[in-house]
User: Fold this.
Amino acid sequence: MFSKAQEKFSIEDRKAISRFKDALDMADRGESQKAIATLQNAVDREPKFVEAWTVMGDLFSSADKPAEASRCYRKALEANAAFFPNNYNSLAEELMKLEQYSAADSALSLFLKYKSAPNMQAKARKNLRNARFAADAIKHPVPFSPINLGPGVNSRFEEYLPAITADENKLVFTVRAPGDTNRNESYGNQLTEDFYQSTYKDNVWQKRISLGPPVNTKNNEGAENISPDGQTLLFTCCADVAGEYPEGRQGLGSCDIFFSIKNGDQWSRPRNIGKAINSKYWDSQPCISSDGSTLYFVSNRPGGKGREDIYFSKLQADGNWGAAQNMGDSINTPDSEISPF
Assistant:
């Protein structure tokens, strides 16, 4: 965006410009606090220094401080909105984090009056739709009273991505913890994702149990889904930085969908679901339909509608999954569609 080598600045004070360039060096070194302090010094000298206010706003935004970031973007716009109109976009994003949707609407509407690149215009229009939707949704709240599933399922660690059987009596979910808490196996300080299950009995979710090996490994297993009858587990497994899959699993891409079959109380060794579904790209987040005949998943393979798209595959008469098909324009967009259910 702004460069130390740029020749034309919004102000002429050489000392303020020098401090701005010093701040860019500090930011490049990861010294954000020093950079902010130096930029503040620059705007104290020149309150209409658009570039300094903008970069300060970016640094506060990266630090997840939307109130401070929005203040800086406002200062930049007050100094000279036409010098860098994209500050309206940046301001709107911070205002939406603060749930100030009407103000975000105003900022985006002002930005759209300027000529800008088509991709920036498209982003602003999308954010404007989101801001207006959020403002309307807040005016028309939907009753929502979540109930904690209790200590059988939840703990001081992270629990997420629940999948439930059709009879609503078995729950499989992901736990991110430093080791397998049931097997008392420690992975040191490394947090890994493992699968656990809980059974609903006497109106209470019972103490969770690790699925254990061969499904769980010291690597991450995630984005699981269980078939309606509770006999098939589908999940995502990814290669490590060296491109290797854990426990001898064979992968086709960076992340593949695997499955395991339940035999009694044991789960079979996971197998790759195959080339009809997996590709040499990222394939993840499987979800099987209630009748077990359709598998939905997410992929970033080429030829889609956007960055990540939802695909589906039909179960064939011979028991194999058919070739994956894109869900099409009614579902997928140029952006990301994820987490099918």
